[in-house]
């Protein structure tokens, strides 16, 4: 079974777009004969995130983890117990392409690290910031970016290194570093880029939103 794990902390505004895109990816994978389950890990949600997930008919797990690392870890553990052989990870403010799951499997690797792109920049993020971001981002094969919004790993490799660590940030980076150290076969690809948010109100400290805010600070000097 392919398991998709999506952590969410008060993401009612964006979760619907995430799950709509995921539904298309799941449909293609199921048409190809794969069993797929989607899990939204509701971490300390006080908004309507649970209702949004219910509307899309996906599995949910309510936790009080208080960190994205622990939320991913708990979600992965549940899906492994349910028989998952492949863990596909994304974020609640992101939208995967329809071929996302099939492409991860087609890579025939233990780990697939994909890229992200920003589809809709915020009005306050001026052209100079966008240029600075793009100048430092390797949207190509063989890149070395690590994003929890676009990551896949086989169950065997994941369990071999002890899975996601319960970190408040960079749990995705730590997992991939642990996998590299274990000798896992990793594919670094840009062929199934995931659209992600350019918002200021980052849910994870030191996450992608804070990275973008840091670029703005550099420009403001």
From TrEMBL:
> Which compartment or compartments is the protein found in?
Cell membrane
Q: Which residues cross the membrane?
A: none
Q: Which domain of life is it from?
A: Bacteria
Matching entries from InterPro entries are given as: Glyco_trans_2-like (IPR001173), Nucleotide-diphossugar_trans (IPR029044)
Swiss-Prot/TrEMBL keywords: Cell inner membrane, Cell membrane, Glycosyltransferase, Membrane, Transferase
Instruction: Show the GO cellular component annotation of the record.
Output: plasma membrane
Q: Is Magnesium among this UniProt entry's keywords?
A: no
One short Pfam family name for this protein?
Glycos_transf_2
Which PANTHER family does this entry report, sorted A to Z? GLYCOSYLTRANSFERASE, GLYCOSYLTRANSFERASE 2-LIKE DOMAIN-CONTAINING PROTEIN
User: Know the name of this protein?
Assistant: Glycosyltransferase
Q: Which organism is it from?
A: Pseudomonas putida (Arthrobacter siderocapsulatus)
């Amino acid at each position: 079974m392919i398991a998709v794990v999506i952590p969410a902390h008060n993401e009612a505004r964006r979760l619907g777009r995430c799950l709509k895109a995921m539904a298309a990816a799941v449909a293609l994978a199921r048409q190809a004969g794969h069993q797929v389950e989607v899990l939204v890990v509701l971490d300390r949600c006080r908004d309507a995130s649970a209702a949004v997930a219910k509307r899309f008919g996906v599995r949910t797990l309510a936790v009080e983890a208080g960190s994205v690392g622990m939320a991913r870890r708990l979600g992965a553990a549940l899906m492994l117990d349910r028989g998952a052989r492949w863990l596909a990870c994304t974020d609640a403010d992101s939208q995967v392409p329809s071929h996302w799951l099939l492409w991860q499997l087609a890579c025939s690797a233990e780990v697939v690290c994909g890229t992200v792109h920003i589809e809709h920049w915020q009005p306050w993020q001026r052209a100079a910031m966008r240029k600075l971001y793009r100048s430092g981002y390797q949207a190509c094969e063989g890149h070395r970016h690590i994003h929890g919004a676009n990551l896949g790993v086989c169950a065997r490799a994941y369990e071999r290194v002890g899975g996601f660590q319960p970190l408040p940030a960079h749990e995705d980076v730590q997992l991939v570093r642990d996998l590299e150290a274990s000798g896992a076969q990793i594919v670094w690809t840009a062929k199934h880029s995931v659209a992600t948010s350019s918002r200021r109100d980052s849910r994870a400290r030191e996450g992608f939103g804070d990275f973008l805010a840091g670029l703005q600070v550099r420009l403001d000097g």
